[in-house]
Structures are given as structure tokens and as C-alpha cells.
Amino acid sequence: MTDSSSKIARPVLVGLGMMLVAFNMRPALTTVGPLLEAIRKDTGLTASGAAFLTTLPVLCLGLACVLGPVIVRRTGAERGVLIAILIIAFGSGLRGLGGLPPLFAGACIAAGGIGLAGVMLPGLVKRDFSENAGLMTGLYTMVLCLGAATGAGAAVPLADALSGWTWALASWAVPAVVAALAWIALVPKQENGPPPPRRSSLWRDPLAWQVTGFMGLQSSLAYITFGWLPVVLQSRGLSAVEAGFVASVMSIGQAPSALLVPAFAARLSDQRGIAIALLALAAASFLALVHGPVGLVLPLGIGLGLGLGGLFGLALTIVVLRSRDVTSAAGLSAMSQAVGYSIAALGPLGFGFAHDVFGGWSVSAGLFCAIALASGVFALGAGRDRKVGTSLTA
């Protein structure tokens, strides 16, 4: 292969590899919700314990993001992604041992791998696809949403086919191993030049905090939905299979907006309006799923998916758009996801506790809307046409 053809082929291969990695960045999280009632029945897990099961992985995801820039500097982005996907595979497989300790440990380990991969992918987009950042962000976000949908929809059928929830959860190690094997070919045999220079900290930059707040709060909406929507729907009379199907349809509904919103938002100088519209769609759809007619759960699930998928794709796009270069993209990605996912972890926990304390789902649904409102406040700052670090010395 000539040098020119190699330069053309490598970004294509990196893009395909990113899609395989992205597919594995949600099933470890979305497969638990549809099986939560079966897990509780089999293990005696309380509602509060279930809230922690949906919260701890998100918290671990956020904490792992802190390590992302360190790993990139020491190993390079490609090796870092390989490490991340192997961690996802290990954590997913660990859940097959059965019992609560392997379930909690495996979920947290897999979430740590997801956090590492999530920090590194925006940097690869900025490095290899800077002129098509919106399109590439949309593509891998769409595939990520399809992975989430596949996990949610296949959870109960896999549990039936494999005689229990343990093997159904552990089976998601297989696609992660496939992605790792494919990604190995992209890891350079030696470092590609010196590590990127350090930049001044973004922790004193108001715009970086606004991006972080938007990332975290919109993510909280998604993790509440992943963890609790199937339980809410079962409480309204749907079977576990039906609730899992609605959750899967909701995740599939994320795909088109996750693809189209980043590409559209990247063409705009200001993303505030689209952020507010998507937040309103998500909040209204969730309220209707909790209180509206049961016969409309499928179209309402699609509406919720469109809102959440668009928000996630928009948040990732804003990280790239607000960054000046590859280094600031990695730093902003790490900060927004590390702090943001730590904030997001409180959403599922608060949602479950509100249900325990007040009974029913009205107060929990009100909490969902309050988080959406707070996310909108941060979006008003994060969506402006500015760059992080402009007030800081390099």
C-alpha cells in the first residue's frame, strides 16, 4: 500500500473501529433495567439497592474519565481505547458469575471502561475528522444508541434463552471482545511522536463549567430513563417483555436524532435554541409516559428517544465545537464527562429514593423535569459561539 493510499485508508479504518467501540458503550448499562425485577426477585435486592445498582456504574463512569488524559499521554489514544474496550469486556463477563457482588463489581468495571472510551473518542474525532466533526460525532453517537437499544431489547429474550439473567448480562462481553480484536489492528507499533503539550487547567473557565453542567444534567435524564423506565412501565401494567420492548424502541428512537442533530448543530454558530427544544421534548415525553395513556407508550417512547439522543449528540458536539484544538478537546472531554457523569449518577439515585419515600412516580417525574430545567440553564451558556481557554494563558 502506498503512503497516499495509507493516509486515506487509516481514517476510514479508525472510523469503522470507532463504530465497533461505540456499539459497546451502552449495553452494560441498558441491559440491567429490563431485568431489574428478575434480579430483585432472585437476589432479594431492595428498591434502594436497585437505585444504587443504577447509580454506582454512572458514578464509576465519571470517575474513570479523570484517568482518560493520563492514559492517552502514557499510551496514546489508540492503545487507550483498546484498554477501555477490554475493561468493558471483563466487567460484562464478570456479571456471569451470579450473585450481587459480581453484579455490582462487573457493572462498575464495565462502566469504568465506558468512561475511558468516552473521553478518548472526541479527541480522535478532533484529530482525524476535524472538518467533518459533526458527521462523525453523529455517526458514532447513533451507533452508540443502537447498541443501547439492542441491549435493552434483547435483555429479557436472552435471559429466557440462557436460563437466567446472569448469562444474559455476561453475554455482552462477546461483542466487546470482537471490537477489541478489530481495534488491535489500529494500534501503532510505536508512539506517533511526543505526547501533546499540557495546557492550562480548564477548571477556572466558566464556559468549561457550563459545558460540563449541560453534559452532566442531560446525561442524568438518560440514565434515569435507562435504569427506571422499564420499572415504571411494568408498574403501569406492562409485562417485562413489553417494557423492555418500549425501552428498546426508545433507544432506537435516539439513533436518527443522534445522527442528525450533531451534523446540523455543527453548522450553527449558536446551539442554545436546539438544546432547549430537545429538553422540552424529552421532559414532555417522559411525563406522558408516566401519566399519559398506556396505549401511547410506543410513540411516546420514540419521542423520548428523539429528545435524549439529540441531547447526547449535541453535548458531544458542543465539546468539540467549544475546543480550540486536539489538546483542549481532550481536556474539555475529560472534565465535562468526569464531573458531568458524577452529577448524572445522582439522577437515578434520587429518582429511586423519591419513589421509595413518596410512593408512586409523580415526585420522581417532577425531579426528571427539574433536572431538564437545570440542564437548559447550563445550555444557555454552553451553546454560545465561544472557545474554552480564551481567557486563560496557554
From TrEMBL:
Coiled-coil stretches: none
Transmembrane intervals: 12-29, 49-72, 79-97, 103-125, 137-159, 165-186, 207-231, 243-266, 273-290, 296-320, 332-354, 360-382
Keyword Cell division belongs to the record: no
Superkingdom, natural source: Bacteria
UniProt KW keywords: Membrane, Transmembrane, Transmembrane helix
InterPro entries: MFS, MFS_Cyanate_Porter, MFS_trans_sf
PANTHER family the record matches: 2-NITROIMIDAZOLE TRANSPORTER (PTHR23523:SF2), PTHR23523
Listed name of the protein: MFS transporter
Organism: Methylobacterium marchantiae
Lineage: Bacteria, Pseudomonadati, Pseudomonadota, Alphaproteobacteria, Hyphomicrobiales
